[in-house]
# Entry
Amino acid sequence: MPKTVKILPDEIKRLSLAMTPFVVQAFRHLHQFPELSHHEHKTADYICETLDALKIPYRRHIGGEGIAATLKCSEPSAKTIALRAEFDALPITEQSDLPYASQNEGIMHACGHDAHTATLLGILKVLLSLKDKLRGTILFVFQPAEEQDPSGAMLMLNDNLFAETPPDVILAQHSSADHKVGDIAISSGQVMASADEVHVTIHGHGGHGAQPHLVNDTVLCAAQTLVSLQQVVARLCSPFSPSVLTFGNLHANGATNVIPSSVTLDGSFRAMDESWRREGLCHIRDIINNTAQAYGCNAEITMSEHGYPSVFNHPELTENIQNHLKNYLGAEHVVPMPPKMTAEDFGFFSQKYNSCFFRFGVRGVNNPNCGSQHSPTFQIDEECFPTAIGGLTYATVSLLNES
# Structure
């Protein structure tokens, strides 16, 4: 058995096209029966039933409903590559006339996790058929709870996901409504932001609005807190470090003549730089406490205990994968992936291992108005699957068989 076996793009394209009906079937099933974060029991059952049919060894209930399957090729210790897909859905009511629309009321795969999981199952089958031509070990990570803290990625890592076989690299791909079918978007460095929730309750002595001198005005304090917090990004953060602090909820249960005894604020802090992220969270806490004190109030602050880190694509690894994808798809179909201030718990993996996270386009002729992700009209053009299967498969076999 030679140390490396050349696997040509045409072979992967043929296998990916042949695997597409299986992936479409799996995708439609998962789309019909979405489950929320930390409640994905039947979804995990479905994945395990598929793995059982393939006689692939796996571990279940890692950090909850997490699953890790292992495929050992020739020379299994040569290199280990992990491939990750998540499988939770969102609390959204689907608005579509698809024959495979969600059957679980108020729950929808509105981000593409159904497509990610179905694709990874298809990739596993393709790589299983090629195992005698490959060197190394491939780990298939099926992850729950990407959408909700506590993160499934963090829980799986804390539950010794890679205790037996730490990966040399870990890869993941994500559907993208911003890109057309047939394209893959990829870039190195910081590609997604961290995310930390900030929940604040301003407490004071409420009372009659006509006697403000006898109360602590919690509403005014909350308003000034919001204004003061704007300096976190505008003045305390370097203009060369992307960061966002947004409060989308302010609740003061008073009336025209009633100043309430408490007001709540809920927001999100996002950053690309982990050092600034830690510093920014300290500034947020200090500003809230100091503003409350200035108004004779006190602040109760709750921040995410385990907020999501930023996603970092290892430059050398990403450039290598980018070149393999260009060889597979053609350079015109491999496009830059602009950084986003949205978050992904793949950041927990990228903080520990050499990682690469990229996107495959799902906007096509069958869904020109596919809707944005996390919206009730989001819809994937199933013509995306040959590219989604083949791109990640070809990147994997190319990395495994590099000398």
User: Anything to note?
Assistant: The radius of gyration is 24 Å. Residues 311 and 347 are 4 Å apart (CA to CA). The chain has two domains: 9-192+310-400, 196-303. Residues 196-303 form a domain with the Alpha-Beta Plaits fold (CATH 3.30.70.360).
